[in-house]
């Protein structure tokens, strides 16, 4: 969605205020109307076909609204209970859950994740090629939760890392790594790390591993 500076400031201020206010106060002061205008405006400008917005605090949902359509031109209204694909927005949620477990002493940032997921000890680093055969070695340092949190674990995605894609094409049936499956531990370690943990940055499956930690 496209917002100018004034809209960003107004919408952000309203959202923060709503987060600390009971629903009745928000409705009485018109703060919820500011958010309505921002979300409805995004639909009217054509930025999005439909949008749902909600703000909650520890005890209440202080704002929720939906505008537009579920699919452009469908005539089916977007509603507050419409199921949407959140995609990578789940990463922030998973990170927050992991940090809550750190606060509770159930996880820590700097211990090897193999402490909780022994299979992580099988992860190896791509260290070159012998013809079409990848050369793998043990990582210089084990993957930690801090590495997962900061995209520095060595994990990557094939669509953005040509070397990892090459590994899949040369070693996997069909040229693709199997989908990650909680019931099949081997699917989690078949992809090599692209560098030693903590030495570089790359966007990859590290949040899936973090979700596995939270799940345990």
Describe this protein's structure.
Strands 1-2 form a two-stranded antiparallel sheet. Strands 3-4 form a two-stranded antiparallel sheet. The relative contact order is 0.11. A hairpin with a 2-residue loop joins strand 3 and strand 4. The model has no long low-confidence stretch (mean pLDDT 88). It has eight helices and four strands; from the N terminus they run H-H-H-E-E-H-E-E-H-H-H-H. It folds into two domains: 5-84, no CATH class; 91-215, no CATH class. The chain has 216 residues and is of the alpha+beta class. The protein has helices at 5-19, 23-29, 31-44, 89-103, 145-149, 162-171, 186-189, 206-215; strands at residues 50-56, 61-68, 125-130, 133-137. It is globular, with a radius of gyration of 22 Å. The two termini are 37 Å apart.
Summarize the structure.
The chain is an alpha+beta fold and 216 residues long. Helix content is 37%, strand content 12%.
- How large a portion of the residues is in β-strands, by DSSP E? 5-15%
Helix content: 25-40%
How many discrete structural domains? 2
What is the helix/strand order?
HHHEEHEEHHHH
The rounded Rg comes to 22 Å
Spatially, the strands of the biggest sheet line up as 1-2
The average pLDDT is 88
What structural class should be given to the helix and strand makeup? alpha+beta
Backbone shape? globular
Our measurement of the CA-to-CA distance between the termini, rounded to an integer number of angstroms, reads 37 Å
Largest sheet: 2 strands, antiparallel
């Amino acid at each position: 969605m496209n917002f100018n500076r004034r809209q960003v400031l107004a919408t952000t201020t309203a959202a923060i205020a709503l987060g600390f206010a009971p629903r009745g106060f928000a409705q009485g002061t018109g703060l919820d109307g500011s958010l309505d205008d921002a979300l409805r405006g995004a639909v009217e400008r054509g930025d999005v076909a439909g949008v749902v917005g909600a703000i909650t605090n520890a005890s209440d949902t202080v704002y929720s609204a939906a505008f537009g359509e579920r699919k452009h031109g469908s005539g089916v209204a977007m509603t507050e209970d419409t199921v949407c694909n959140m995609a990578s927005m789940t990463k922030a949620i998973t990170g927050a859950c992991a940090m809550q477990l750190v606060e509770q002493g159930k996880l820590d940032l700097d211990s090897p994740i193999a402490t909780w997921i022994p299979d992580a000890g099988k992860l190896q680093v791509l260290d070159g090629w012998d013809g079409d055969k990848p050369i793998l070695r043990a990582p210089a340092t084990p993957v930690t939760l801090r590495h997962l949190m900061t995209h520095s674990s060595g994990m990557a995605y094939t669509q953005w890392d040509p070397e990892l894609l090459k590994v899949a094409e040369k070693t996997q049936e069909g040229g693709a790594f199997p989908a990650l499956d909680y019931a099949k531990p081997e699917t989690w370690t078949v992809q090599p790390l692209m560098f030693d943990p903590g030495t570089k940055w790359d966007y990859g499956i590290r949040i899936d591993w973090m979700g596995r930690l939270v799940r345990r």
